[in-house]
Amino acid sequence: MSKTAQFKPYGFGQYCYVVLDQITHFEPYSSNNDSGTKIYFENGTEIFVGDSPATVRQAIEHAGEV
What we know:
15% of the residues lie in helices and 44% in strands. By secondary structure, the chain is of the alpha+beta class.
């Protein structure tokens, strides 16, 4: 079963849920006084979240824990 994580919206919007094992990589992102993380997925899509790269990394690392 795939693990998901909930991340804050980037700017305005709703919280988003991400399937962690489909993330290929991520990087810090900042624009218009907002900062967060840009997440890239296996299928070529990308999403901006309001959480820091450290928070995203922590979610991925803890996804393997039971």
